[in-house]
Amino acid sequence: MIEDLEMPAVRRSLTVGVDRQTAFTLFTDGFGMWWPPSHHVAPGDLDTVIIEPRANGRWYERLLNGGEANWGTVIAYEPPSRLLLGWQLNHEWQYDRKSERASTIEITFQAAAAELTRIDFEHRDLANHGRETQAIHDAVNGPEGWTFLLSHFTEFLGG
User: Fold this and answer.
1) How many domains does the chain have?
2) 134, exposed or middle or buried, with CB in 10 Å at 0-12, 13-18, 19+?
3) How many CA atoms lie within 13 Å of 126's alpha carbon, on the beta-carbon side?
4) Which residue in 2, 67, 111, 117 has the most C-beta neighbors within 10 A?
């Protein structure tokens, strides 16, 4: 059965030329500043994307017209070292309220030098999406997926 399909995690690593606290803050509080406006789920023009800075917080987008669309939840918020998010978007980029069908995104920030931070990114538990597992894996691992999206963060930091 496809529901039993195990899908490997999607992993990316990058090194940025800022200290760990700055990298964490700009990744989380500044998410809407670097996230590409082409990648949002609700109809309308994107204003920003928000990660609420606390466990059990929301991860969502806000449109210019004031509308909002949920993407998931903040599972752990541990500045400046770790962010854990529940991804609750299905293969049609619609919010799924059932948290048991969420996959998990973990981002860790490790000091590599005084002004250098290694960021390890892992999108896992994709099999939780059931029949949608393959489609979601292919999308987040594809050319418009996490490599593309994280490159916007690197560019935002001047790299």
Assistant:
1) 1
2) middle
3) 22
4) 117
CATH number at residue 31: 3.30.530.20
pLDDT score for 1: 36
Q: Are the beta carbons of 137 and 32 closer than 8 angstroms?
A: no
| Domain assignment present for 57 | yes
Q: Is residue 44 part of a domain?
A: yes
Number of H helices, E strands in the chain: 4, 7
Distances (CA, A) of 52 to 55, 60, 66, 68: 8, 9, 17, 14
Domain-embedded: residue 158: no
Model confidence over 25-43: pLDDT tens digits? 999 999 999 999 999 999 9
- Could you tell me the residue range of the domain that residue 118 belongs to? 2-141
Angle, CA of 125, 55 and 116, to the nearest 5°: 80
The verdict on residue 146 lying in a domain is no
Residue 18 Ramachandran class (φ > 0 left, ψ -120 to 50 alpha, else beta):
beta
